[in-house]
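Q: What residues go here?
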């Protein structure tokens, strides 16, 4: 970078300036003085024009100069609230004033606080401008809102407070005290901790804090690990941190008394202002550092004492407060950019993306291509290629962790041609026709790159060599470096780093900070010469034939060195220019170059310097006696405002003195005389310009002479053709076309009232925007011509992936095929459906539209499109794949498709193979194939019953299976009735049907077994759940009835589970009786309760012992048989039976008045079967009680029964949860 002073403004009455600030949004500069004076200035630079009058090269105008009155003491702090346009000033007497820009564009007081008499040491607004923190010298801190209300306040400590700073997210506050400590608080002023200070060594007296600055990241970060927090002390000790708890900060010593520190607008540069004492004299400096502590530049400023500094919004200017003046300094930034093949390649970054945005802007066609590069480090280019160096974060690279950097070789549209991983930081990149030279501070890598020979891309032999500048004679190949140098890469730091490099296909020049320039030959990489200079080198550049080299030192002086002459040339040795920051050599004149000095450009030929002219741009190239300049500053401003593509206005062309004088001579002298002057100092560009002037004057003779001089055969052919035209206007139109002045040609044709020729011209040029304008302005337009123009415009936007815009033009041209692609790419399916409806049947596009709808799951429009192009089979297949069973089956029935069943079976098998059984069930269900659906579902239910799943889930699965079977039975009945009406069924057909039903389904269950027993598992789980619910609700009798019902489902539920439940319910029943008796509180009831309790206790003991008795009986049977024989064993059994028969137990429960509906014998209500006729009583699904009445309710869905009085209060079936009313 380069920085220089540009303007100085004095304060009234020679009042010293103590503080200054710059509003980045509105451009206002504020200056606070020692007597309480506050000035608000606005120094605007031109925003229109070319590089001569625009930007920092333009004449700055002081458009505002206002004095703010209200302070009487020294201004101690100034803070801009840029988001709300407010200025806050504070003085040493404790007065705080908030100023706001009024309706008359004058700042007026908005708020005033002069109640505190303590000196205000610092104040800062947070990043969003909602809160301000005001710190008093005595430690009192106040946080206020933008509206003026107090949010928080606290007295921090007994030490004096010096600085305050907000974190970027406004969650933390940093407070720096006079003794050097920095405390961390949250925004509610709760103490968190201290920042560890590394830059102050132990034993060194603590210094006062000069500044705490934390870049808020509003415009992005250079890299993800950039340092953004800086802490600096007045003695020059400084540390850079990425966050408040950064364990590895960067430590610096700026070696001066620091007065102020400020980050620029995007965190890429830190300005440190202060002074150095040399004896009794103080020298004021501003040092500029990168976020990693690298020194970039120093600016010396005259004056006694520097007080403060502040950056402009785009880092192009800096305001400096010294004595009673404020200085404005211009900054020429080092952008990462290059120029290749009429293309400007540059990079920038924003807060919205983590990557750098690399822009490839073709200045001829104005086409722009973007590439996103994470952690961009360097960029360089030449000819047709550019190289991009970047850092690869750990965890994102698939290569060895040592190779942490990559260099990408790209063409002029940003496409990567080659890439190379390197193990060091690529700081400098120089590209020649055959090589890419990449350098760090101590290593140089020469990489042979591919190139074009003619129109073919030729891959050259691999060429990779490394040079270590501290050991110039040692040159290693890439593999050798990996094995030898990488082990000691950390030890390769040098005290004399590389500062610049340049080269050609034969030579490489490497400049070092000490002033040494190393010259290597290529391809051998042999050190040929070491040139020692007596100054520190900043930048070097080589001419086109490698005979002259320009050197710029750190002070901005430019010198030349002759690399060919053995003896020093006096003119070269004496050449020197000051305040130079860049030199670009001409590509066709080896002794000519352009020099950028401050905000001017000078063109030099030999040692003769043309008059410097203003220039705010950066030189792209110097060729054909012209210098092309790009205004990168304005382009960066454009991107900051959100504009994506630059315009041709950002390119400016300067003519050198020779070309400028020739053009002036053409205006004053005859062309023949000008031709004679060119003969004395010829150049192809001069002859070319003379030919153009001669053509404009219709001087064929001079034009022919000029074309002969430059061997322009095409130009000579044009002159011969030109003489065949009749009429001056036609000739001038052809000349303008030859000179590529298309607008001038069209203007001539329109003036001649020949819009047809203008139309043909623009059509031939492919300028379809102008074609449309011409057609709309005249009567020559036909429908075919209009449609062609609209269609070409649609193709223009379609090729650039702007499909929504392209669709508008295709719609006007009636290009339905391309319109379909636009709608598909933009996913505008509403418009696509309208397009489908507008097409005629059997249109070729309908098939593509239908496939597009099917691909995104839009079944209805897809079916409509398939039907209109007679693809019914594809429509049915799509419906089945999208699970639109109803639509697919209806479509098949509508068009009488005979292979629907085969198609459904195949799809169901596919779904089963894809482990989608429920989709297959739904498919079978929609196609009325309920039996197959039931088979699949029954298999799933069987698997669930073997797993540890909820009982309700198991029941649901079996219930759904049963409902499918009921639907199957209903469908079979309907089909049977229809068949009986149509034709009688023979006995053989009936038998065949019965045999068919015996086929086994899934899980080894036959169709007959499934039809007969499908409800049994569901009934088992239903009554099991019902019994447990009744048990938990203390309904012991109901639970016992439901549990006794489970004895008929011992093949489904474990027997142990059933009888454990029965035993538990019996115990519950007895305990309920006991509790009821005890509630009566009389002696008789208590005796009965005690008797029941003893009996329950005895039954439990007997139940526990029952298992042991069974085992004992078995053992006794074996022993008795062995001792008394088989006859004695039967005798023993007979005696045992007589004994128990005489004293068998009696059932003391009362006999109910129920009777069997089959045999009319009286029975108990707990009987599941009639003891006389063995008639089975169906259980009630609501209560579990056997139904012995004649009147009951039957579910219309599952066909299960329930008592009518129980169903009177229910709306759904307790078993299948279907509606009671069906």
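A:
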């Amino acid at each position: 970078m380069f920085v220089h002073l540009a303007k100085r403004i004095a304060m009234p009455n020679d009042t010293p300036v103590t503080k200054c600030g710059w509003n980045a949004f509105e451009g206002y500069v504020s200056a606070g003085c020692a007597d309480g004076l506050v000035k608000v200035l606005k120094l605007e630079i031109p925003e229109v024009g070319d590089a001569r009058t625009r930007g920092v090269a333009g004449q700055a105008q002081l458009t505002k100069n206002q004095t703010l009155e209200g302070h009487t003491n020294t201004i101690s702090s100034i803070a801009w609230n840029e988001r709300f346009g407010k200025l806050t000033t504070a003085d040493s007497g404790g007065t705080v004033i908030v100023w706001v820009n009024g309706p008359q564009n004058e700042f007026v007081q908005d708020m005033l606080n002069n109640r505190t008499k303590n000196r205000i040491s610092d104040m800062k607004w947070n990043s969003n401008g909602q809160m301000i923190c005001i710190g008093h010298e005595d430690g009192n801190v106040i946080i206020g809102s933008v509206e003026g209300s107090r949010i928080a306040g606290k007295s921090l400590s007994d030490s004096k407070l010096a600085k305050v700073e907000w974190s970027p997210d406004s969650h933390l506050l940093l407070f720096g005290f006079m003794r050097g400590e920095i405390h961390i608080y949250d925004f509610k002023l709760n103490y968190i901790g201290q920042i560890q200070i590394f830059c102050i060594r132990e034993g060194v007296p603590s210094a006062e804090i000069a500044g705490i600055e934390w870049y808020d990241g509003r415009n992005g970060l250079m890299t993800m690990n950039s340092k953004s927090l800086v802490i600096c002390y007045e003695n020059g000790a400084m540390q850079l941190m990425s966050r408040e708890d950064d364990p590895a900060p960067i430590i610096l010593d700026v070696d001066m008394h620091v007065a102020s520190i400020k980050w620029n607008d995007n965190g890429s540069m830190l300005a440190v202002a202060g002074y150095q004492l040399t004896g009794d004299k103080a020298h004021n400096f501003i040092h500029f550092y990168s976020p990693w502590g690298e020194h970039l530049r120093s600016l010396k400023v005259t004056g006694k004492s520097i007080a403060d500094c502040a950056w402009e919004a785009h880092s192009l200017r800096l305001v400096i407060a010294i004595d009673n003046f404020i200085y404005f300094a211009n900054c020429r930034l080092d952008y990462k950019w290059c120029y290749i093949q009429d293309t400007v390649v540059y990079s920038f970054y924003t807060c919205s993306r983590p990557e750098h945005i690399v822009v490839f802007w073709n200045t001829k066609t104005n086409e722009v291509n973007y590439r996103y590069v994470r952690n961009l480090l360097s960029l360089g280019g030449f000819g047709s290629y550019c190289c991009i160096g970047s850092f690869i974060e750990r965890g994102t690279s698939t290569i060895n962790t040592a190779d942490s950097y990559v260099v990408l070789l790209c063409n002029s549209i940003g496409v990567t041609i080659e890439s190379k991983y390197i193990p060091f930081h690529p700081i400098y990149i120089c590209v020649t026709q055959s090589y890419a030279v990449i350098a760090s501070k101590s290593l140089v890598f020469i990489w042979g790159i591919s190139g074009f020979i003619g129109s073919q891309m030729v891959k050259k032999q691999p060429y990779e060599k490394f040079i270590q500048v501290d050991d110039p004679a040692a040159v290693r190949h890439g593999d050798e470096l990996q094995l030898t140098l990488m082990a000691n890469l950390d030890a390769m730091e040098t005290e004399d780093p590389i500062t610049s490099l340049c080269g050609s296909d034969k030579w490489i020049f490497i400049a070092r900070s000490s002033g040494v320039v190393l010259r290597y030959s290529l391809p051998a990489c042999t050190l040929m010469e070491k040139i020692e200079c007596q100054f520190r080198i900043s930048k070097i550049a080589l001419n086109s034939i490698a005979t002259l080299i320009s050197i710029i030192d750190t002070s901005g002086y430019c010198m030349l060195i002759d690399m060919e002459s053995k003896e020093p040339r006096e003119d070269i040795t004496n050449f020197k220019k000051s305040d130079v920051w860049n030199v670009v050599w001409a590509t066709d004149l080896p002794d000519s170059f352009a020099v950028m000095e401050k905000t001017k450009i000078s063109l030099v030929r030999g040692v003769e310097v043309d008059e410097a002219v203003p220039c705010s741009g950066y030189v792209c190239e110097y060729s054909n006696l012209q210098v092309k300049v790009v205004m990168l500053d304005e382009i960066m401003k454009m991107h900051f405002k959100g504009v994506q593509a630059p315009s041709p206005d950002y390119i400016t062309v300067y003519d050198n003195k020779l070309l400028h004088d020739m053009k002036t001579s053409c205006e004053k002298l005859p062309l023949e005389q000008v031709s004679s002057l060119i003969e004395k100092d010829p150049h192809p560009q001069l002859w070319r310009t003379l030919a153009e002037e001669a053509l404009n004057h219709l001087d064929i003779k001079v034009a022919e002479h000029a074309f002969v001089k430059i061997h322009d055969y095409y130009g000579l052919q044009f002159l011969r053709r030109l003489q065949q035209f009749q009429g001056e206007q036609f000739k001038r139109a052809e000349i303008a076309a030859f000179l590529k002045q298309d607008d001038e040609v069209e203007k001539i044709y329109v003036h001649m009232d020949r819009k047809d020729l203008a139309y043909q011209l623009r059509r031939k040029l492919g300028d379809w925007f102008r074609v449309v304008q011409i057609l709309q302005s005249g009567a020559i337009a036909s429908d075919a011509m209009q449609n062609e123009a609209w269609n070409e415009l649609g193709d223009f936007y379609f090729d650039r992936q702007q499909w929504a815009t392209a669709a508008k033009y295709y719609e006007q041209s009636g290009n339905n095929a391309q319109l379909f692609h636009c709608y598909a790419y933009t996913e505008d399916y509403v418009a696509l459906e309208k397009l489908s409806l507008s097409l005629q049947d059997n249109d070729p596009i309908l098939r593509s539209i239908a496939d597009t709808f099917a691909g995104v799951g839009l079944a209805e429009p897809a079916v409509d499109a398939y039907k209109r192009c007679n693809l019914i089979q594809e429509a049915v297949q799509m419906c089945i794949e999208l699970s639109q069973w109803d639509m697919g089956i209806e479509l098949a029935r509508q068009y009488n498709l005979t292979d629907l069943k085969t198609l459904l079976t195949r799809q169901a098998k596919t779904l089963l193979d894809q482990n989608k059984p429920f989709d297959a069930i739904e498919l079978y269900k929609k196609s009325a194939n309920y039996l197959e659906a039931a088979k699949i579902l029954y298999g799933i239910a069987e698997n669930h019953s073997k797993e540890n799943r909820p009982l309700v889930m198991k029941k649901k699965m079996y219930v759904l299976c049963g409902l499918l079977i009921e639907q199957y039975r209903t469908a079979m009945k309907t089909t049977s009735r229809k068949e009986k009406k149509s034709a009688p069924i023979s006995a053989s057909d009936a038998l065949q049907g019965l045999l068919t039903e015996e086929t086994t389904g899934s899980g080894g269950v036959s169709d007959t077994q499934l039809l007969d027993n499908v409800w049994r598992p569901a009934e088992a789980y239903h009554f099991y759940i019902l019994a447990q619910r009744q048990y938990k609700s203390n309904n012991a009798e109901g639970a016992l009835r439901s549990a006794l019902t489970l004895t008929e489902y011992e093949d489904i539920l474990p027997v142990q589970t059933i009888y454990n439940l029965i035993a538990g319910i019996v115990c519950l029943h007895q305990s309920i009786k006991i509790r009821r008796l005890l509630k009566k509180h009389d002696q008789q009831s208590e005796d009965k309760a005690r008797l029941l309790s003893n009996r329950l206790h005895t039954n439990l003991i007997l139940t526990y012992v029952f298992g042991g008795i069974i085992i004992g009986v078995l053992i006794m049977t074996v022993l008795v048989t062995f001792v008394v024989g088989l006859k004695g064993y039967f005798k023993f059994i007979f005696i045992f039976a007589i004994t128990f028969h005489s004293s068998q137990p009696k059932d003391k429960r009362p006999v109910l008045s129920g009777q069997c509906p089959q045999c009319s014998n009286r029975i108990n209500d707990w009987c599941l079967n009639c003891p006389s006729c063995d008639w089975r009583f169906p259980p009630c699904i609501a209560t579990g009680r056997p139904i012995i009445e004649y009147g009951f309710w039957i579910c219309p869905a599952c066909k299960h029964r329930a008592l009518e009085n129980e169903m009177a209060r229910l709306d759904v079936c307790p078993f299948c949860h279907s509606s009671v009313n069906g």
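A: Context that may help when evaluating the design: Residues 397-401, 990-1004, 1107-1145, 1149-1153 have pLDDT under 50 and may be disordered. The first strand starts at residue 2 and ends at 10.
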